Amino acid sequence: MTNAPGEPDATSAPHTTGPPAVTRLYARLVVSDGARAIDFYRETLGAEEIERYTGPDGTIVHAMLRIGGVAIAVKDADTGDPAPTSLGGSPVIMALDVPDADAVAEAMLRGGATVVYPVADQHYGQRGGRLADPFGHLWMISQTMEDLTPEQIQERTTDQFTS
Fold first, then answer.
1. How far apart are CA 102 and CA 141, in angstroms?
2. How does pLDDT run across 74-124, given as a tens digit for each residue?
3. CA-based nearest residue to 89, from 70, 114, 68
4. Cβ atoms 143, 126 nearer than 8 A
5. Which of 36, 141, 142, 153 suits 45 as a labelling partner, its CA being 20 to 30 A distant?
6. How far apart are CA 102 and CA 106, in angstroms?
7. Which residues, in sequence order, are CB contacts of 163 under 8 Å at separation 6+?
8. In which region does residue 158 sit, left (phi positive, over 0), alpha (psi from -120 to 50) or beta (all else)?
9. pLDDT digits over 25-80, tens only?
10. Cα(4)–Cα(107) distance, integer angstroms
């Protein structure tokens, strides 16, 4: 098995004891149409493409994007890596903190996303909602409306479930 560009070879890593030293963590989104997905993320989330590698048939085997200060990877689905749409959905939710949840949700909807939960004021001090992008990935979009302590959030959460 070969690693994608930029991924370390686990067999060459020095053996250590204790927790592993993680040097980078990013999501790798497998999609049915990598080029279209990159365009969608660029147009709706302001993604910047950092690198792209393709197979002989033009499929994207690895593309790195930057959204704000965060990196994500995109690749075309294949027999080893199925897209969420072929699995009946994704159990993973990408969470985006943004200055204007309504504007980001509107941009994603214009680009073909669908509403899972509409953007609304939430009991934990956020305004947010959940959307599914056209490639089956889930995105929780939220903006801070109130700066609450963990205790205040827990109290409101308890109230939410008991009232």
1. 9
2. 999 999 999 999 999 999 999 999 999 999 999 999 999 999 999 999 999
3. 114
4. yes
5. 153
6. 6
7. none
8. alpha
9. 899 999 999 999 999 999 999 999 999 999 999 999 999 999 999 999 999 999 99
10. 31
Tokens of 37: 């997905």
Rounded Cα distance between 35 and 10, Å, is: 29
Confirm if 156 and 128 have CB atoms less than 8 A apart.
Answer: no
- Dig out the tokens for 155 from the structure: 């109290």
pTM to 2 decimals?
0.82
Closest of 38, 73, 75 to residue 59, by C-alpha = 75
Is residue 103 within 8 A of residue 136, CB to CB? The reply is: no
Say how far apart CA 70 and CA 27 lie, in whole Å. 10
